[in-house]
Design brief:
The chain contains 13 helices and 4 strands. It is of the alpha+beta class and 271 residues long. Strands 2-3-1-4 form a 4-stranded antiparallel sheet. The longest helix is centred in the middle third of the chain and has 20 residues, at 123-142. The chain starts with a helix and ends in a 19-residue tail after the last helix.
């Protein structure tokens, strides 16, 4: 049965398969997956569905090594010739492990997504794998290698570099790397202080957040929302900028009259 939720999972699986074939995740998500859209009468482009799609795709990529290790232990043989089905299994496990949604819905909608991938032969297998994980979750998780390359899904070279440079904090760094980054705002100080936006503007929109130490214009939201739901965003009251980037500017100790070249232009707003 085709549902909006199943279509989101199918599209996430397609994007992840593209990443495993060498695309960046941003590029993979921009490719609309026309086959899925044609197979489903529902649009993925609602705010809620788009948020779910991105959360699922980014989450699977973050935990890819760990999830792939789990899938390998749940399958009798690898799915080398069915990368989208493999990716869908990763989506299913990520939902059960890390996303706040009812397990029955995660399993049912992931199974429904099989048809949208035109892989009806895999429907029973996907259902069986996810049900088995539910039954044997503790044993499967306990049996995972203790190696942080698997547990924290970091490549060996990066684990080694972090452990070398931060010998006391390396485990915490790896754990924090796998957390979803907060949505951080930069308040336009010419329009008012960050405290005023935090105390007056956000509550009026039903949003909450907190100030970021060391970055006087930064507010980290307690829960991310689309930018068009941010009060004053379209009027230039706030913009979206990571706290690390804001801290870098503060560390420069800029003064009136200086000229500053920002050479870190990405393929986004700066360019």
């Amino acid at each position: 049965m085709s549902t909006p939720s199943a279509a989101v999972r199918a599209e996430a699986a397609r994007a992840i398969a593209r990443v495993m074939a060498g695309r960046t995740l941003d590029d993979a998500l921009r490719e609309k997956g026309d086959a899925t859209m044609v197979a489903s009468p529902f649009s993925l482009m609602t705010t809620q569905n788009r948020s779910l799609l991105m959360a699922m795709a980014y989450g699977v990529v973050r935990e890819h090594t760990l999830l792939t290790t789990l899938v390998a232990r749940l399958l009798d043989k690898p799915l080398d010739k069915a990368p989208e089905v493999q990716a869908l299994l990763l989506c299913g496990l990520h939902q059960l492990r890390s996303m706040r949604m009812p397990a029955h819905a995660a399993v049912a909608e992931t199974v429904n997504a099989v048809g949208l991938l035109e892989a009806h032969w895999a429907r029973g297998m996907v259902n069986a794998v996810l049900r088995r994980y539910q039954r044997e979750r503790r044993a499967l998780e306990d049996a995972l290698p203790t190696d942080p390359v698997v547990r924290q899904s970091h490549p060996t070279w990066l684990v080694d570099a972090i452990r070398r440079d931060w010998p006391r904090q390396w485990k915490k760094v790896l754990l924090e790397n796998n957390e979803q980054a907060p949505l951080t705002l930069r308040v336009n100080r010419r329009r008012g202080p960050a405290t005023a936006y935090l105390q007056k503007e956000l509550p009026g929109a039903g949003l909450t957040g907190h100030l970021v130490t060391g970055a006087p214009d930064a507010i980290a939201l307690d829960e991310a929302v689309p930018v068009d739901e941010l009060p004053g965003f379209t009027d230039g009251l706030v913009s979206v900028q990571d706290a690390a980037a804001q801290l870098a500017v503060e560390l420069l100790d800029l003064k009136d009259g200086l000229r500053v070249l920002d050479a870190c232009a990405a393929p986004g707003g700066k360019t």
